[in-house]
């Protein structure tokens, strides 16, 4: 099936200008094994703190709450990152405690007015997976996911997104070998492949346009200055001056990004991300802004009415 025939069938919102494509959001579960983000927020003075507190991703109550909030935002598909932590690689998929809970929830959506889809994102934090690791993960997808009604298809194939995509010979080799799965490489900023984050105005494409709430490299700057270059101390302000970032502007940056993407009417609008707290690049509710980004997403997409049950 094509992406349009596989996406959620939901009633039109009251705004009359409802985006009818698929809205996907990046989602990580690494908080089940790694408190890195929470540690960095505390150590480096992060500007945002999760409304749920410093949670564990494999807490069933947390996942249930997150799914409700994702539906409240008008999101259609969860792009599940495997794994954005250095503690696991793709062969550790059988150890994942959050994914089985998510699959069970997606299997039992009959009482939900908004049915969510799933897309798998493959990566290895701070490095490239090997060919064997990619193939292990793809086989997991084949055996456990592609025949599920909730798995998302694009160009008549189950979609898998893979990062990082530059200078990655293993990914190129696996992509060449793989015929039964639509493998799409992804990278940051203005690239010839799919973007996962971009400045405004982001590049307009028919297939996929990303929309970010803004991204703040303060944690990355501090980490580099403190941990990577201990033998050669850096001027933190000089590092920050060169680091890519986009100020949230109280939500205005995201509204411009999302509106531009919706007006271009691509197949998929990709929101980066749901819970990327380390880089302050998240729309998950926070103590500081509460549901600002969740409800803005539904409003801009023209999905207020259909998401009302989740508010």
Number of E-state strands: 9
The CATH topology: TIM Barrel
CATH superfamily: Glycosidases
Uncertain runs are: 1-15
- Percent helix range: 25-40%
Average pLDDT, all residues:
88
**CATH uppermost class:** Alpha Beta
Q: Judging from the principal axes of the Cα atoms, what is the shape?
A: globular
Strand content: 5-15%
Question: What structural class do you assign from the helix and strand content?
Answer: alpha/beta
Question: Which keywords apply here?
Answer:
TIM Barrel; 9-stranded mixed beta sheet; 311 residues; alpha/beta
Task: Please write out the topology.
Layout: H1 3-6, E1 22-28, H2 36-44, H3 60-72, E2 77-82, H4 98-107, E3 117-122, H5 131-144, E4 153-154, E5 157-162, H6 169-177, E6 182-188, E7 194-197, E8 208-211, H7 218-228, H8 236-242, H9 252-264, E9 268-271, H10 292-300, H11 304-307
Parallel strand pairs: 1-2, 1-9, 2-3, 3-5, 5-6, 6-7, 8-9
Antiparallel strand pairs: 4-5
What's a quick, concise take on this entry?
The protein is an alpha/beta fold and about 300 residues long. Helices cover about 35% and strands about 15% of the residues.
